[in-house]
Amino acid sequence: MRSAAPCKPYRGPVTPEEIRRASRGWWDSDADNYQAEHGDFLGMVNFLWCPEGLRENEARLLGDVRGRRVLEVGCGAAAATRWLAIQGAQVVGLDLSAGMLRHAAAAAQTSGVLVPLVLGDVLALPFPDGSFDIACTAFGAIPFVEDSAAAMREVYRVLRPGGRWVFSATHPMRWIFLDDPGEGGLYAIHSYFDRRPYVERDEAGVPSYVEQHRTLGDRIRELVGAGFVLRDLIEPEWPEGHEVIWGQWSPLRGRLFPGTAIFVTEKPTR
Ligand SMILES: C[S@@+](CC[C@H](N)C(=O)[O-])C[C@H]1O[C@@H](n2cnc3c(N)ncnc32)[C@H](O)[C@@H]1O
User: What is each CA distance from 235 to 34, 50, 76, 86, 266, in whole angstroms?
Assistant: First the structure.
């Protein structure tokens, strides 16, 4: 969710085509802002799972990645893809937004860590069945597609049996609050059970940003429905002394309730 929009945001129907156009347009046009605002915290070669500051080098949710074929979906500027490459993984970073991938390509030059980047949609991954040992994303792709159950099935398809799928997203309970890192974000005003998309529109009334809410139960049902086994659900706690504010994530709120959910899942071997 976002806090500022030219027209009043609403929750209501939006077509899959409007969603795709809004996502691509939003992330293309916001890519510079996003990197200017969060680039330092995200780092150049760094796998950050969430605004709480949990990094893969300490969390090790992907297991040993050396020599593994790893797909990062919704990679954005691909700091995590580059970190995985440095660890010895055979990586691919995929994103819907050419604007974000332009930042990824520039950062590859700056850092000297060149990784394959693919323009694509999590709903139609351009890879054969069983191409990867691991798939992952930090806040990429999943919250932005209407049919997230189909996204889970698509990730399942490109993983080999025994492969792992780990993704972080805004914790579903945040849906009940305003997107406000301060006191205004401490009061429940929306129903947790309201699954209507959050939609911002431009001056012409065209959807320009769309984000989807699923309850914890919905997410687990999507994963299990696709065939995954859920191994863990991590709700990172706000660390003592961590003062970084990222959008609606803040120390004030982080000390009271979770801001991120990380799903650790596996495709069964048979
Ligand atoms: C919040 S950003 C996260 C980027 C990156 N993972 C990070 O940690 O900075 C969300 C990303 O998901 C991408 N995205 C949105 N919809 C997508 C889709 N359907 N398929 C693939 N990527 C998508 C956006 O283009 C954007 O780069």
Answer: 24, 10, 23, 27, 18
pTM of the model: 0.94
Choose the residue to mutate in 81, 139, 179 for probing ligand 1, maximizing ligand atoms within 8 Å of C-beta.
Answer: 139
Residue in this structure with the two tokens 């997107």, named with its chain if needed? 179
Beta bridge pairs of residue 257: none
In this predicted model, what pLDDT tens digit does every residue of 189-230 receive, in sequence order? 999 999 999 999 998 989 999 999 999 999 999 999 999 999
d(CA 237, CA 257) in angstroms, rounded, equals 8
Confidence of residue 39 (pLDDT cuts 50, 70, 90): confident
Give per-residue pLDDT as tens, 121-166.
Answer: 999 999 999 999 999 999 999 999 999 999 999 999 999 999 999 9
Task: Please tell me the distance between residue 107's alpha carbon and the centre of ligand 1 in angstroms.
Answer: 16
The pLDDT value recorded for residue 9 is: 84
Provide the 3-class DSSP secondary structure of residue 164.
Answer: strand
What does pLDDT average to over the chain?
94
Q: Would you say the CB of residue 83 lies under 6 angstroms from ligand 1?
A: no
Atom 10 in ligand 1: residue holding the nearest Cα: 140
Residue 23's contacts (CB-CB under 8 Å, 6 or more residues apart) are: 96, 97, 144, 145, 210
Structure tokens that stand for 56 in this block: 């893969």
Helix segments in the chain, DSSP class H: 16-42, 56-59, 79-86, 98-111, 148-158, 216-226, 251-254
